[in-house]
TrEMBL record:
Keywords: Methyltransferase, Transferase. Residues 258-278 are annotated as: Disordered. One of its GO terms (biological process) is methylation. The lineage of its organism: Bacteria, Bacillati, Actinomycetota, Actinomycetes, Streptosporangiales. Pfam families: Methyltransf_12. InterPro entries: Methyltransf_12 (IPR013217), SAM-dependent_MTases_sf (IPR029063). Residues 55-149 form the Methyltransferase type domain. This is Class I SAM-dependent methyltransferase. Residues 265-278 have a biased composition (Pro residues).
Length: 278
């Protein structure tokens, strides 16, 4: 199966459903709502006047939220439908932004090498990539000396637990086989998808950190969070837009955030014999 074309068709099908959903609330965004989480804004810091590239930007809400905070933004996504929607939203908000259609592995050529102060990747992105080593080297190639990667993601640990309660180990944490899913609806609900098949790839936390370090980036912090952004398990309790294990019960790592900075030299050469997957 061609994972890239399969996923592109799937995400092109999602775009009109997502754009019209309460989940994304595009009208609310145009009116001034920000989708960025408070911990992201705190950990990234002041972006005024800084060049920011958002990889796998989907319909561009997070990208444009950084623009509202003063960043000079460029969003990249492999879905032409998503990029077109992002451009429409940017025009409605009268926000300056550039959006580019390209595979994330081609980002350095599509966006410009050593051109950005910040490379940002939002939640739910890495599961669509088969090769994190190649991804991290792409990020390193985009960054100016002294720039940094900021990644906020769902923690891989909960993926080994049962879907109902999140209390029993039912899946192998180290399973790296591609996962093929056929689902009639996207996570926002709504209409039946025209293209229902997707291919996903699981990555452990150590795999993420190792890829970032191997690309020559210096990890400044790795923060694990005891909350997530949706009802991951039925047992989680919601408060202030976050979902946590109920008080008194042992906590789970549900999200993480990582920041890693670029040095003054070019990223290291690929490991001999390493042949990244496409």
């Amino acid at each position: 199966m061609d994972y890239l074309e399969t996923n592109r068709a799937n995400w092109n099908s999602r775009v009109p459903i997502h754009a019209g959903s309460d989940f994304y609330d595009v009208d609310g965004f145009v009116a001034g709502r920000s989708p960025l989480r408070s911990f992201e804004r705190e950990e990234v810091g002041d972006v005024s006047g800084r060049r920011l590239a958002h990889l796998q930007c989907h319909i561009g809400l997070d990208t444009l939220a950084w623009a509202r905070l003063g960043a000079e933004v460029t969003g990249l996504d492999f879905s032409d439908a998503a990029v077109a929607q992002a451009e429409t939203i940017a025009a409605a908000c009268r926000l300056p932004a550039r959006f580019v259609t390209a595979d994330v592995y081609d980002a350095a050529e599509a966006l410009g090498r050593a051109a950005y102060d910040i490379v940002y990747t939002g939640v739910g992105a890495l599961v669509w990539l088969p090769d994190l080593t190649r991804w991290a080297r792409t990020v390193a190639a985009l960054l100016k000396p002294g720039g940094f990667l900021y990644l906020a993601e769902f923690h891989p640990f909960p993926d080994i637990l049962d879907e109902a309660t999140g209390t029993t180990v039912t899946h192998d944490y180290f399973d790296r086989e591609p996962q093929v899913w056929v689902e009639p609806h996207t996570y926002t609900g709504g209409e039946v998808l025209e293209h229902q098949t997707s291919v996903q790839f699981q990555h452990g936390l150590g795999e993420v950190v190792s890829a970032v370090c191997a690309a020559g980036l210096r990890v400044e912090f790795l923060h694990e969070h005891d909350f997530t952004l949706f009802q991951r398990f039925a047992t989680l309790e919601a408060a202030d837009g976050r979902y946590r294990v109920p008080g008194g019960a042992p906590k789970l790592p549900l999200m993480y955030s990582l920041r890693a900075s670029a040095g003054s030299g070019p990223p290291p050469a690929p490991t001999p014999g390493h042949r990244p997957e496409r």
